[in-house]
Design goal:
With 128 residues, the protein is mainly alpha-helical. Among the domains are: 29 residues; 52 residues, LysM domain (Membrane-bound Lytic Murein Transglycosylase D, Chain A, Roll). Helices cover 40% and strands 8% of the residues. Strands 1-2 form a two-stranded antiparallel sheet. The longest helix has 27 residues. The protein is rod-shaped and about 120 Å long.
């Protein structure tokens, strides 16, 4: 089914003054006057990122200050391996309060060792 519309009056188009469809703007409007001063507007995500950045900088500054107060790296003692000594014995003497396995790992890390073998006369660094 279809419907036919019958208009009583024809729709009139808007009257043009001088026949042109463009008109001249008489007052000078500047974009700043129209938009106003927008300033800087951060979204919620932007504010969170900015807060996280500030927090990271504060933490990094605190960590750097703590390192400066600490006075640098820990003191390192040197031990010469005697005949018949094992790495476990040396590590236990250097760190009597630690379990032997943990003490051995500390000595290995300080000396870039990948095994438990030591030789008489070998110099080992013992960090304190």
């Amino acid at each position: 089914m279809s419907a036919v519309a019958h208009w009583a009056e024809p729709i009139a188009s808007p009257a043009r003054r001088d026949g042109r469809h463009l008109s001249l703007v008489t007052e000078r409007a500047l974009p700043a006057d129209i938009a106003g001063d927008a300033g800087l507007h951060l979204t919620v995500r932007g504010r969170r990122v900015l807060a996280a950045l500030v927090l990271a900088l504060v933490c990094a500054g605190g960590w750097g200050a703590a390192q400066a107060v600490a006075g640098g790296p820990a003191a390192i003692d040197s031990v010469t391996v005697q005949s018949g000594q094992t790495l476990s014995q040396i590590a236990h003497e250097a760190y009597p309060s630690l379990p032997v396995a943990e003490a051995v790992v500390r000595v290995q890390l300080a000396n870039n060792m990948n095994s438990l073998h030591v030789h008489p006369g070998q110099e080992l660094s013992i960090p304190r």
